[in-house]
């Protein structure tokens, strides 16, 4: 069965794969609920209490500029 992986602590989407149907309820960090579409700069986040995905804005990477001095 097709499943979707998420981080157990943050809910952040981690990809998709296939798993034996018997193991789905026993393994944390997987769901059969399909994540919603998302764009560049966004990330699906799963809430295991409500069994729903939301799309959030991804945090930008920090860029450091070194100035001579």
How many domains is the backbone divided into?
Answer: 1
Number of helices: 0
How do the strands line up in the largest sheet? Answer: 2-1-3
What Rg, in angstroms, do the CA atoms define? 16 Å
- Can you write the helix and strand succession as a string? EEEEE
Structural class: mainly beta
Q: Which regions contain 5 or more consecutive residues with pLDDT less than 50? A: none
Whole-number average pLDDT?
A: 89
What proportion of the residues is helical, as a percent range? under 10%
Question: What attributes characterize this protein structure?
Answer:
69 residues; two-stranded antiparallel ribbon; three-stranded antiparallel sheet; 5 strands
Walk me through this protein's architecture.
With 69 residues, the protein is mostly beta strands. The chain has one domain. The protein contains no helices and five strands. The strands form two sheets. It has a three-stranded antiparallel β-sheet with strand order 2-1-3, with no helix packed on it. A two-stranded antiparallel sheet has the order 4-5. A hairpin with a 4-residue loop joins β4 (42-47) and β5. It is elongated, with a radius of gyration of 16 Å.
Please specify the SSE layout and strand pairing.
Blueprint: E1 2-6, E2 13-18, E3 30-31, E4 42-47, E5 52-57
Antiparallel strand pairs: 1-2, 1-3, 4-5
């Amino acid at each position: 069965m097709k499943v979707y992986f998420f981080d157990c602590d943050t809910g952040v989407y981690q990809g998709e794969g296939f798993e034996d149907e018997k193991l789905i309820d026993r393994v944390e960090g997987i769901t059969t609920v399909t994540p919603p579409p998302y764009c560049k700069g966004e990330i699906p986040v799963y809430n295991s209490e409500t069994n729903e995905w939301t799309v959030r804005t991804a945090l930008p990477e920090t860029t450091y500029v070194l100035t001579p001095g």
